[in-house]
Design goal:
Low-confidence stretches of chain B: none
Oligomer: heterodimer
CATH architecture of the largest domain in chain B: 3-Layer(aba) Sandwich
Shape of chain A: flat
Largest sheet of chain B: 6 strands, mixed
Shape of chain B: elongated
Order of helices and strands of chain A: HEEHHHHHHHHHHH
Largest sheet of chain A: 2 strands, antiparallel
CATH superfamily of the largest domain in chain B: P-loop containing nucleotide triphosphate hydrolases
Strand order of the largest sheet of chain A: 1-2
Strand content of chain A: under 5%
CATH topology of the largest domain in chain B: Rossmann fold
Structural class of chain A: mainly alpha
Radius of gyration of chain A: 24 Å
Helix content of chain A: over 70%
CATH class of the largest domain in chain B: Alpha Beta
CATH superfamily of chain A: MetI-like
Mean pLDDT of chain B: 87
Distance between the termini of chain B: 36 Å
Structural class of chain B: alpha+beta
Number of strands of chain B: 22
């Protein structure tokens, strides 16, 4: 049977196309436009070709921010994924306790990002913060505003506190979706707890873990608000990540051209790395 | 190889059962003889799976004991009993190959490599999986997956019984009979006790030597397929088995006869005497296939009005009316009969049962 062809149907997708172009394509094109011009004033602009791209790609400060950013995102993944899976495994499955645990676990996700930063800024202060005072009382020198390592650890701890619940909730949902028969079969087959995890739970969490990796990678790679509030990128540039550097470029120094070029590179890097993660995690499924 | 004995087994899913209604499984005594092929037949929610899980040890019964070869295993976990269980939806370890799947129960028990290899190959040959051993288990067809999960049960040398919980539900109809035949063949070769849960009477009657019929948490009858058809001891067995099920007509008892809608059917005097003392509603039971059309005025016969005739190929199924009651009759195709006529149907004493409160009077 031949399918009827009707070109007028294109009219029906037109509104969506228009909406998408206004919301995504046109702003993006503006950025592309800025990235190849030197804007001297509202009426004065010069086409500069790839100059800004060459400039930002050679910028040592940007290289530093990129290195810190990669280190931060990888550390976030390395900490939050195992922790999230572990939390999901120990969460109660039934009854009132289960609901209570889920609500408590989900609380950090409900807090506005800048409030998270503020909470940790106060929490970690060496003079009045519970965490800071406690660590100093143990005899360890801790000052996140002066020591780069302390600042790093504090930013990481904050992100783990903020986002591990998301990973845990995703995994919890994934675990709940495993039919009871799998656990029963494993018991009859004499599988140990570890074997049950390794051969039943982990393989069946693959889907949600892929989502968790992508979400946590993209989000952490774009992190801005919390470290901005907590450390302001300091001490020095120790916790200046990509988006903060970008903001400084665009808003602080008003270098719109380089900032636009940088934005595009930033966007492409996230797209590329997400694609790599996605392919890596779904590869074995299709390889069969 | 084992004889499984259930003594006073009862189960409630609530922690503190108060009334008898709380029990998913009412107290029961059952013995599964070594090497027998049993079917556990009953409607959904009648306690079949509960009973199965108690045998395999996935569930601890609220009351009673489970004995395997005389040893009390009530408290033993499933891995300590030598029982294999196959579930409704095939359980496969997706990340493993077919070989690793079959080897898994042995590896968990620390069996040495050479023996694992030998056992897996043996079971694979039995289940016709030899060619697929190196395939990854994910994405295989449902019948292959179900064969693998059966294989995981068979691979253990000491396996005492195989429990199957509606294993053919998700299998395509055209491979169902193949798998059923395979199962029968496995049973014949290994002589292992087989307990097969199903709600499909055809499956139960073709596969099993003995059928355990359950309803509402109770075992209502244990018997050979023939016994269940010919002498259902419970009205539930009567109408659950057979298509259509047994005709059950409310009746009253007189001396040596029962009265159905004002018509008289002579019946064994002893049975009638016992029926008078038995409590509960009295019903006369006769299967549609055992009714015979006879000449007007024959003894042992009822006069009925035909309301509908369905042609089912080799026979026809007539729905008739007897006063307020409806009576189904299976007749040979050559029998001439049409709606609106009246005719006489004989109830041969051999196939006519009398029930008081749902239980047969014998």
């Amino acid at each position: 049977m031949e399918k009827p062809t009707n070109h007028r149907a294109w009219l029906l997708v037109l509104p969506v196309l228009l909406a998408v172009s206004f919301s995504a394509v046109i702003p993006l094109m503006t950025v592309v436009n800025y990235s190849v011009q030197d804007i001297l004033g509202p009426e004065q602009r010069v086409f500069v070709g790839t100059e800004w791209f060459r400039k930002v790609l050679r910028d040592p400060e940007l290289h530093g921010a990129l290195r810190r950013q990669l280190g931060f995102s990888l550390a976030v993944l390395a900490l939050e994924l195992p922790l999230g899976v572990a939390l999901a495994l120990v969460l109660p499955r039934h009854g009132r306790l289960a609901s209570l645990a889920l609500v408590l676990l989900g609380l950090p996700l409900l807090i506005p990002f800048n409030v998270v930063g503020t909470i940790w800024q106060l929490f970690a202060r060496g003079d009045i913060g519970l965490l800071g005072v406690a660590i100093n009382a143990l005899g360890l020198e801790y000052n996140y505003t002066a020591n780069a390592l302390d600042a790093w650890l504090t930013v990481l701890a904050m992100d783990v506190w903020h986002w591990t619940p998301l990973v845990a909730l995703l995994c919890y949902a994934g675990l709940r979706a495993i039919p009871e028969a799998y656990y029963q079969a494993a018991r009859i087959d004499g599988a140990s707890t570890w074997a049950t995890f390794r051969f039943i739970q982990l393989p069946r969490l693959r889907g949600v873990l892929t989502i968790a990796v992508l979400l946590r990678f993209m989000d952490s790679f774009m992190i801005y608000t919390e470290p901005f509030v907590l450390t302001g990128g300091g001490p020095g540039n120790a916790t200046t990540f990509l988006s903060q550097y970008l903001t400084r470029l665009a808003v602080g120094q008003f270098d719109l051209g380089p900032a636009a070029a940088f934005s595009l590179v930033y966007f492409l890097v996230i797209l590329l790395l997400s694609y790599v993660f996605y392919t890596a995690m779904t590869r074995t499924k299709e390889a069969r | 190889m084992a004889r499984i004995e259930l003594r006073g087994i009862a189960h409630a899913y609530q922690a503190a059962p108060r009334s008898e209604e709380d029990f998913a499984l009412r107290p029961l005594e059952l013995v599964w003889e070594d090497g027998g092929a049993y079917a556990l037949l009953g409607p959904s929610g009648c306690g079949k799976t509960t009973l199965l899980n108690i045998i395999s040890g996935l569930l601890q019964p609220t009351r009673g004991q489970v004995l395997i070869d005389g040893a009390d295993v009530t408290a033993a976990p499933p891995q300590a009993r030598n029982i294999a269980q196959v579930f409704q939806f095939p359980v496969i370890y997706d990340t493993m190959t077919v070989f690793e799947n079959l080897a898994f129960p042995l590896r968990n028990r620390g069996v040495d490599r050479a023996e694992i290899q030998a056992r897996v190959e043996e079971v694979a040959a039995l289940l016709e999986l030899t060619g697929d051993l190196r395939l990854r288990a994910s994405g295989l067809s449902a019948d292959l997956r179900q064969r693998i999960s059966l294989g995981r049960g068979l691979v253990r040398k000491d396996v005492a019984a195989i429990l199957l919980d509606e294993p053919l539900t998700v299998i395509d109809p055209h491979v169902k009979w193949l798998l059923r035949r395979k199962l029968k063949q496995v049973h014949e070769q290994l002589k292992v006790t087989l307990v097969y849960v199903t709600h499909d009477q055809v499956e139960a009657l073709t596969l099993a030597d003995r059928v355990v019929v359950m309803n509402g948490g109770r075992v209502v009858q244990v018997g050979t397929p023939q016994e269940l058809v010919e002498r259902p001891l419970d009205t539930f067995v009567g109408y659950f088995i057979g298509s259509p099920g047994m005709n059950l007509l409310p009746c009253i008892v007189e001396d040596g006869a029962v009265m159905v809608e004002g018509q008289r059917i002579p019946l064994d005097a002893d049975v009638c005497a016992r029926a008078r003392t038995a409590g509960g509603e009295l019903r006369l039971g006769i299967r549609p296939e055992f009714l015979r059309r006879v000449a007007e005025g024959s003894p042992q016969a009822l006069r009925v009005e035909v309301t509908q005739v369905e042609h089912l190929g080799r026979h026809k199924l007539a729905t008739t009316r007897l006063g307020e009651q409806s009576l189904k009759v299976r007749l040979p195709e050559e029998e001439r009969l049409s709606a609106g006529e009246s005719c006489w149907l004989e109830l041969p004493p051999r196939w006519t049962m009398l029930y008081a409160g749902g239980r047969a009077i014998t």
